[in-house]
Amino acid sequence: MKRAYDVIIYTDGACLGNPGPGGWACILKHSGTRATKKLAGGEPDTTNNRMELQAVIEGLKALKHRCRVKVVTDSQYVRRGMTEWVSKWIANDWRRGSKKGSAPVKNVEYWKRLVALCDQHDVTFEHVRSHAGHPQNEECDRMAVAQSQRFA
């Protein structure tokens, strides 16, 4: 029998323009106690992909103990990056290809932080469609947009 997740982290990022003022948000839900924690922040000049990554980073940073985590994101960039691409990037010294002169991975500092945090936990990634009525995703979107508007 599969053990339940200890924590589910719902995440979203937003950007007014790309680049532009951005915001990130996450909701952490403890499966056992049902306790929730909401976090949000932003930056005056960033990109949507960076804010999507920052939301996951901040959610994982908030965990105090090693646990099983499910990250629920509407970002295919984040999900595919962590489930399909990152092992190749690492093998290629954070380059997008194995050939000499291959382009470096974009947002590499964010990816490195995310990998380091995932190494501290047992993390899986699940994709949900954005703006499709998922309650926590919709709430994270509202929070992230509000954060980006602080810098507009």
Descriptive notes:
The chain is an alpha/beta fold. The chain has a single domain, classed as Ribonuclease H-like superfamily/Ribonuclease H (Nucleotidyltransferase, domain 5, 2-Layer Sandwich). The chain contains four helices and five strands. It has a five-stranded mixed β-sheet.
Provide a compact summary of the structure:
By secondary structure, the protein is α/β, with parallel strands linked by helices. The chain has one domain: Nucleotidyltransferase, domain 5 (2-Layer Sandwich). The chain is 37% helix and 28% strand.
* Strand numbers in spatial order across the main sheet: 3-2-1-4-5
The level-1 CATH class? Alpha Beta
- What does the average pLDDT come to? 95
What is the helix/strand order? EEEHEHHEH
**Radius of gyration of CA atoms, rounded to a whole number:** 15 Å
Report how far apart the termini are.
Answer: 49 Å
User: What is the 3D shape?
Assistant: globular
Could you give the count of β-strands? 5
What characterizes the major β-sheet? 5 strands, mixed
How is the quaternary structure best described? single chain
CATH architectural designation? 2-Layer Sandwich
The number of helical elements comes to 4
- Strand fraction equals 25-35%
What's the CATH topology label? Nucleotidyltransferase, domain 5
Low-confidence stretches: none
Task: Find the CATH superfamily.
Answer: Ribonuclease H-like superfamily/Ribonuclease H
Q: Which structural class best describes the helix and strand composition? A: alpha/beta
